[in-house]
Amino acid sequence: MTLFALVLALSTPAHAQELELPVLSPSASVSQQVGTVTVTVDYSSPAKRDRTVFGELVPYGEVWRTGANAPTTLTVSGDVMVGSKVLPAGTYSVLTKPAEAGWTWLINTDVNARTASYDAAKDAVQLEAKPAEGVDRERLTFLFEDTTDDGTQLVLEWAGTRVALPISVDSHARGNAAIEAFESSAMSAFVRAARFKGEQGDLEEALRLVDTALALDENWYAAWAKAEILHDAGEHKDAKKMAQKAMDLGEAAENFFYRSRVEKAVAEWPKK
Question: Do both 34 and 155 map to the same domain?
Fold first, then answer.
Protein backbone atom coordinates (compact mmCIF):
# COMPACT_ATOMS: atom_id res chain seq x y z
CA MET A 1 0.00 0.00 0.00
CA THR A 2 1.36 3.44 -0.94
CA LEU A 3 1.77 6.17 1.70
CA PHE A 4 -1.08 8.19 0.10
CA ALA A 5 -3.45 5.20 0.18
CA LEU A 6 -2.55 4.50 3.80
CA VAL A 7 -3.24 8.10 4.86
CA LEU A 8 -6.55 8.09 2.95
CA ALA A 9 -7.64 4.84 4.56
CA LEU A 10 -6.84 6.12 8.06
CA SER A 11 -8.60 9.46 7.53
CA THR A 12 -11.85 8.08 6.01
CA PRO A 13 -14.57 7.02 8.54
CA ALA A 14 -15.44 3.33 8.48
CA HIS A 15 -19.09 4.26 7.94
CA ALA A 16 -19.53 7.48 5.97
CA GLN A 17 -22.37 9.61 7.32
CA GLU A 18 -25.27 10.14 4.95
CA LEU A 19 -25.91 13.68 3.82
CA GLU A 20 -29.43 14.74 4.83
CA LEU A 21 -30.93 17.81 3.19
CA PRO A 22 -34.51 19.04 2.72
CA VAL A 23 -36.28 17.54 -0.28
CA LEU A 24 -38.46 19.38 -2.77
CA SER A 25 -41.51 17.22 -2.10
CA PRO A 26 -41.36 15.72 1.39
CA SER A 27 -43.31 12.57 2.16
CA ALA A 28 -46.48 12.82 4.23
CA SER A 29 -49.12 10.51 5.64
CA VAL A 30 -52.56 11.02 7.15
CA SER A 31 -54.85 8.42 8.74
CA GLN A 32 -58.39 8.39 10.03
CA GLN A 33 -60.41 5.70 11.77
CA VAL A 34 -63.99 5.49 10.53
CA GLY A 35 -65.96 3.10 12.69
CA THR A 36 -63.71 0.04 12.72
CA VAL A 37 -61.94 0.85 9.44
CA THR A 38 -58.67 2.79 9.20
CA VAL A 39 -58.18 4.92 6.09
CA THR A 40 -54.62 6.05 5.28
CA VAL A 41 -53.19 8.22 2.53
CA ASP A 42 -49.44 8.24 1.84
CA TYR A 43 -48.14 10.88 -0.54
CA SER A 44 -45.39 13.34 -1.44
CA SER A 45 -46.19 17.01 -0.92
CA PRO A 46 -44.92 19.34 -3.67
CA ALA A 47 -44.83 23.13 -3.15
CA LYS A 48 -46.15 25.97 -5.30
CA ARG A 49 -42.86 27.89 -5.27
CA ASP A 50 -44.47 30.94 -6.96
CA ARG A 51 -45.91 28.82 -9.76
CA THR A 52 -49.46 28.66 -11.09
CA VAL A 53 -50.47 25.15 -10.08
CA PHE A 54 -53.76 24.13 -11.64
CA GLY A 55 -54.01 24.72 -15.34
CA GLU A 56 -50.23 25.08 -15.78
CA LEU A 57 -48.02 22.99 -13.47
CA VAL A 58 -50.87 20.48 -13.28
CA PRO A 59 -52.60 20.66 -16.69
CA TYR A 60 -56.36 20.50 -16.93
CA GLY A 61 -57.88 17.48 -18.65
CA GLU A 62 -54.89 15.20 -18.04
CA VAL A 63 -54.38 12.38 -15.55
CA TRP A 64 -52.26 13.51 -12.62
CA ARG A 65 -50.59 11.22 -10.08
CA THR A 66 -51.85 13.64 -7.40
CA GLY A 67 -48.54 14.25 -5.74
CA ALA A 68 -44.87 13.91 -6.57
CA ASN A 69 -42.15 11.26 -6.44
CA ALA A 70 -43.77 7.92 -5.56
CA PRO A 71 -47.45 7.33 -6.39
CA THR A 72 -49.98 8.54 -3.85
CA THR A 73 -51.69 5.57 -2.19
CA LEU A 74 -54.95 5.00 -0.33
CA THR A 75 -55.09 2.09 2.11
CA VAL A 76 -58.32 0.88 3.73
CA SER A 77 -58.21 -1.78 6.44
CA GLY A 78 -61.75 -2.93 5.64
CA ASP A 79 -64.31 -2.63 2.86
CA VAL A 80 -65.61 0.91 2.31
CA MET A 81 -67.86 2.73 -0.13
CA VAL A 82 -66.37 5.47 -2.30
CA GLY A 83 -69.33 7.26 -3.75
CA SER A 84 -71.62 4.40 -4.72
CA LYS A 85 -68.85 1.84 -5.40
CA VAL A 86 -67.58 -0.77 -2.96
CA LEU A 87 -63.82 -0.52 -2.44
CA PRO A 88 -62.51 -3.75 -0.86
CA ALA A 89 -59.87 -3.66 1.86
CA GLY A 90 -56.43 -3.08 0.37
CA THR A 91 -54.05 -0.48 -1.04
CA TYR A 92 -54.70 1.54 -4.19
CA SER A 93 -53.04 4.36 -6.09
CA VAL A 94 -54.81 7.71 -6.12
CA LEU A 95 -54.84 9.66 -9.37
CA THR A 96 -57.02 12.52 -10.49
CA LYS A 97 -58.01 14.32 -13.67
CA PRO A 98 -58.33 18.01 -12.74
CA ALA A 99 -60.54 20.40 -14.68
CA GLU A 100 -61.91 23.86 -13.99
CA ALA A 101 -65.50 22.69 -13.82
CA GLY A 102 -65.09 19.20 -12.41
CA TRP A 103 -62.40 16.80 -11.27
CA THR A 104 -62.37 13.01 -11.55
CA TRP A 105 -60.97 10.84 -8.76
CA LEU A 106 -59.31 7.69 -10.10
CA ILE A 107 -58.72 4.97 -7.51
CA ASN A 108 -56.58 2.39 -9.27
CA THR A 109 -55.69 -1.17 -8.30
CA ASP A 110 -52.13 -0.73 -9.59
CA VAL A 111 -50.35 0.70 -6.54
CA ASN A 112 -47.44 1.77 -8.75
CA ALA A 113 -49.61 3.69 -11.21
CA ARG A 114 -48.17 7.01 -12.36
CA THR A 115 -49.34 9.46 -14.97
CA ALA A 116 -47.46 7.68 -17.77
CA SER A 117 -48.36 4.15 -16.65
CA TYR A 118 -52.00 4.79 -15.74
CA ASP A 119 -54.40 2.17 -17.07
CA ALA A 120 -58.08 3.11 -16.81
CA ALA A 121 -59.04 -0.58 -17.03
CA LYS A 122 -57.53 -1.03 -13.57
CA ASP A 123 -59.65 1.65 -11.92
CA ALA A 124 -61.65 0.38 -8.98
CA VAL A 125 -63.43 3.73 -8.71
CA GLN A 126 -63.97 6.69 -11.02
CA LEU A 127 -65.82 9.48 -9.28
CA GLU A 128 -66.67 12.99 -10.42
CA ALA A 129 -66.09 15.77 -7.89
CA LYS A 130 -66.74 19.49 -7.97
CA PRO A 131 -63.75 21.61 -6.95
CA ALA A 132 -64.26 24.48 -4.53
CA GLU A 133 -62.27 27.38 -3.23
CA GLY A 134 -59.99 26.22 -0.44
CA VAL A 135 -57.07 27.29 1.71
CA ASP A 136 -54.22 28.76 -0.33
CA ARG A 137 -51.76 26.14 0.87
CA GLU A 138 -48.14 26.27 -0.22
CA ARG A 139 -47.91 22.49 -0.25
CA LEU A 140 -50.30 19.81 -1.46
CA THR A 141 -52.14 18.56 1.61
CA PHE A 142 -54.57 15.72 2.28
CA LEU A 143 -56.82 15.82 5.35
CA PHE A 144 -59.99 14.25 6.68
CA GLU A 145 -63.12 16.20 7.59
CA ASP A 146 -66.66 15.60 8.87
CA THR A 147 -65.75 12.16 10.21
CA THR A 148 -68.47 10.06 11.86
CA ASP A 149 -68.78 6.36 12.68
CA ASP A 150 -70.19 5.87 9.19
CA GLY A 151 -68.13 8.10 6.93
CA THR A 152 -65.56 10.80 6.26
CA GLN A 153 -64.44 13.23 3.60
CA LEU A 154 -60.92 12.84 2.24
CA VAL A 155 -60.01 16.37 1.19
CA LEU A 156 -57.24 17.51 -1.16
CA GLU A 157 -56.18 21.13 -0.71
CA TRP A 158 -53.51 23.02 -2.62
CA ALA A 159 -53.03 26.50 -4.03
CA GLY A 160 -56.53 27.67 -3.16
CA THR A 161 -58.32 24.63 -4.59
CA ARG A 162 -60.22 22.06 -2.58
CA VAL A 163 -61.62 18.71 -3.78
CA ALA A 164 -63.34 16.12 -1.57
CA LEU A 165 -63.70 12.35 -1.87
CA PRO A 166 -66.61 10.85 0.14
CA ILE A 167 -65.81 7.59 1.94
CA SER A 168 -68.44 5.66 3.88
CA VAL A 169 -68.40 2.58 6.08
CA ASP A 170 -71.33 0.28 6.95
CA SER A 171 -70.45 0.27 10.64
CA HIS A 172 -73.77 -1.35 11.57
CA ALA A 173 -73.10 -4.42 9.40
CA ARG A 174 -69.44 -4.56 10.42
CA GLY A 175 -70.40 -4.37 14.09
CA ASN A 176 -72.91 -7.21 13.77
CA ALA A 177 -70.37 -9.32 11.88
CA ALA A 178 -67.76 -8.66 14.56
CA ILE A 179 -70.20 -9.72 17.29
CA GLU A 180 -71.05 -12.93 15.44
CA ALA A 181 -67.37 -13.72 14.94
CA PHE A 182 -66.65 -13.00 18.60
CA GLU A 183 -69.50 -15.23 19.77
CA SER A 184 -68.34 -18.04 17.49
CA SER A 185 -64.80 -17.74 18.80
CA ALA A 186 -66.02 -17.57 22.40
CA MET A 187 -68.27 -20.60 21.85
CA SER A 188 -65.32 -22.66 20.62
CA ALA A 189 -63.22 -21.55 23.57
CA PHE A 190 -65.94 -22.58 26.05
CA VAL A 191 -66.23 -25.98 24.36
CA ARG A 192 -62.47 -26.53 24.66
CA ALA A 193 -62.59 -25.47 28.29
CA ALA A 194 -65.52 -27.82 28.96
CA ARG A 195 -63.69 -30.78 27.42
CA PHE A 196 -60.63 -29.97 29.52
CA LYS A 197 -62.61 -29.87 32.76
CA GLY A 198 -64.44 -33.05 31.76
CA GLU A 199 -61.15 -34.86 31.25
CA GLN A 200 -60.18 -33.75 34.75
CA GLY A 201 -63.34 -35.31 36.12
CA ASP A 202 -64.99 -32.03 37.08
CA LEU A 203 -68.40 -32.80 35.58
CA GLU A 204 -70.21 -29.88 37.18
CA GLU A 205 -67.79 -27.29 35.82
CA ALA A 206 -67.59 -29.02 32.43
CA LEU A 207 -71.37 -28.88 32.07
CA ARG A 208 -71.47 -25.23 33.14
CA LEU A 209 -68.91 -24.33 30.49
CA VAL A 210 -70.53 -26.32 27.69
CA ASP A 211 -73.96 -24.86 28.57
CA THR A 212 -72.41 -21.40 28.24
CA ALA A 213 -71.17 -22.41 24.79
CA LEU A 214 -74.64 -23.60 23.82
CA ALA A 215 -76.17 -20.36 25.09
CA LEU A 216 -73.84 -18.42 22.77
CA ASP A 217 -74.55 -20.63 19.78
CA GLU A 218 -76.73 -23.73 19.88
CA ASN A 219 -74.92 -25.80 17.26
CA TRP A 220 -74.08 -29.44 16.74
CA TYR A 221 -70.45 -29.04 17.82
CA ALA A 222 -71.31 -27.75 21.30
CA ALA A 223 -74.17 -30.25 21.64
CA TRP A 224 -71.84 -33.12 20.74
CA ALA A 225 -69.28 -31.92 23.29
CA LYS A 226 -71.98 -31.99 25.98
CA ALA A 227 -73.08 -35.45 24.86
CA GLU A 228 -69.52 -36.79 25.21
CA ILE A 229 -69.07 -35.21 28.64
CA LEU A 230 -72.33 -36.75 29.85
CA HIS A 231 -71.42 -40.13 28.33
CA ASP A 232 -67.99 -40.18 30.01
CA ALA A 233 -69.68 -39.33 33.30
CA GLY A 234 -72.06 -42.28 32.96
CA GLU A 235 -75.13 -40.10 32.38
CA HIS A 236 -76.21 -42.31 29.50
CA LYS A 237 -79.84 -41.25 29.14
CA ASP A 238 -79.00 -37.55 28.90
CA ALA A 239 -75.95 -38.30 26.76
CA LYS A 240 -78.09 -40.20 24.23
CA LYS A 241 -80.61 -37.35 24.04
CA MET A 242 -77.85 -34.81 23.54
CA ALA A 243 -76.20 -36.94 20.83
CA GLN A 244 -79.53 -37.01 19.00
CA LYS A 245 -79.75 -33.24 19.32
CA ALA A 246 -76.24 -32.93 17.88
CA MET A 247 -77.34 -35.18 15.01
CA ASP A 248 -80.41 -33.04 14.28
CA LEU A 249 -78.40 -29.82 14.37
CA GLY A 250 -75.63 -31.33 12.29
CA GLU A 251 -78.00 -32.38 9.52
CA ALA A 252 -78.75 -28.71 8.92
CA ALA A 253 -75.12 -27.55 9.15
CA GLU A 254 -72.71 -27.01 6.29
CA ASN A 255 -69.70 -28.67 7.91
CA PHE A 256 -70.84 -31.65 10.00
CA PHE A 257 -67.37 -33.17 10.22
CA TYR A 258 -68.10 -35.52 13.16
CA ARG A 259 -71.12 -37.08 11.47
CA SER A 260 -69.86 -40.67 11.70
CA ARG A 261 -69.05 -40.33 15.42
CA VAL A 262 -72.43 -38.82 16.21
CA GLU A 263 -74.29 -41.41 14.12
CA LYS A 264 -72.46 -44.19 15.94
CA ALA A 265 -73.30 -42.68 19.34
CA VAL A 266 -76.97 -42.34 18.45
CA ALA A 267 -77.06 -45.96 17.28
CA GLU A 268 -74.92 -47.64 19.96
CA TRP A 269 -74.94 -45.66 23.21
CA PRO A 270 -77.17 -47.17 25.89
CA LYS A 271 -80.47 -45.46 26.64
CA LYS A 272 -80.04 -45.67 30.41
Answer: yes
